[in-house]
């Protein structure tokens, strides 16, 4: 089952990169906030159909959830909005790597302190080295993107 979850996540990552690129291009025509709105509106329609036909949970459970848990919806919106802004300016891969670095950094903090009822996983040098390599990768990718952009302008 873990292999299947890794495959699902891999496919999700592919979809996310494709969406980032398409949204970045689309935002030039429709606007950043409008593009983000369209994404969430389409998601609302799609998930409404999914809930009607396949839902097994309790939608009204939203009303009894702790308020801090509802912040996840806002955080997802912020992520998408910032991604739509960044992609046309720094490219898809630089945007995604920066997003992944952010995820890894906050993931390390969440794991270390066990926030949000997660496992407590100590911070070790391997995790710090992994973050450092990601930052180095971002630097080289961003520099390559800048060079390509400058060459295409001349």
UniProtKB/TrEMBL annotation:
<feature type="transmembrane region" description="Helical">
    <location>
        <begin position="68"/>
        <end position="87"/>
    </location>
</feature>
<protein>
    <submittedName>
        <fullName>Transporter family-2 protein</fullName>
    </submittedName>
</protein>
<feature type="transmembrane region" description="Helical">
    <location>
        <begin position="93"/>
        <end position="113"/>
    </location>
</feature>
<keyword id="KW-0812">Transmembrane</keyword>
<dbReference type="GO" id="GO:0005886">
    <property type="term" value="C:plasma membrane"/>
</dbReference>
<keyword id="KW-1133">Transmembrane helix</keyword>
<dbReference type="Pfam" id="PF04657">
    <property type="entry name" value="DMT_YdcZ"/>
</dbReference>
<keyword id="KW-0472">Membrane</keyword>
<feature type="transmembrane region" description="Helical">
    <location>
        <begin position="36"/>
        <end position="56"/>
    </location>
</feature>
<feature type="transmembrane region" description="Helical">
    <location>
        <begin position="125"/>
        <end position="142"/>
    </location>
</feature>
<dbReference type="InterPro" id="IPR006750">
    <property type="entry name" value="YdcZ"/>
</dbReference>
